[in-house]
Amino acid sequence: MTTVRLPLFPLNSVLFPGLVLPLNVFEERYRAMMRELLKTPEDDPRRFAVVAIRDGHEVAPSTPGMPDPTTVPDRGPAAGFGADPAKAFHRVGCIADAATVRERADGTFEVLATGTTRVRLLSVDASGPYLTAELEELAEEQGDEAGALAEGVLRAFRQYQKRLAGARERSLSTGADLPDEPSVVSYLVAAAVMLDTPTKQRLLQAPDTASRLRDELKLLRSETSIIRSLPSLPASELTRTPTSLN
């Protein structure tokens, strides 16, 4: 079992391998994390782990009434995640490699990272200025019929795009824009389809690529059917990920 200890960045969203993650970092615990990452030599990866929050708040209350008017200030690396932060997070996450870590004049950071490898959360340490975690790297197994399933998912994904775009063909991605490697297809589609966090988390932790693709095929058909009955649904940019508040 290959394990690694990395800084931990919990979010209210799921990061997939190969997907870009923009972050606007303003909380002191995560600013401390970024200052530490900046000490990494430029030729080495600046890595941290992203896990989706199961029970807790991405942004901890910093002043009375922020962000919830009924809350009081909370401090420390585990603020907002309870007495045992490990229980607040989903157990499978993704390593992020920060290609850009830019400090602003006010001490906040603009970060652009990319998901690389899935990991399983083994333990969380809240003794430092920010959370760190012991993580087990997870291999990506292909599973049976992954290639054929990827082709079916791509066809279903194009139909999904078409329905979201109001059947305007010019707004669709062409075949050349989409990958054909099964695991890449599975992660791209998982990130692009508008699904809730628990569903995206289920896709991230699928036991293999084929299982993820089978699940996505069912989801795409279901979502496309729903959209078909809602013709007034506006078009959506499928590959744009909103910047996290933190």
Automatic annotation (TrEMBL):
The record's annotation in Gene3D superfamilies points to:
1.20.58.1480, LON domain-like (2.30.130.40)
Q: Where is each Lon N-terminal domain found? A: 6-224
InterPro entries membership: Lon_prtase_N (IPR003111), Lon_prtase_N_sf (IPR046336), PUA-like_sf (IPR015947)
Source species, domain of life: Bacteria
Taken from the record, one Pfam family name reads LON_substr_bdg
Specify the protein name.
LON peptidase substrate-binding domain-containing protein
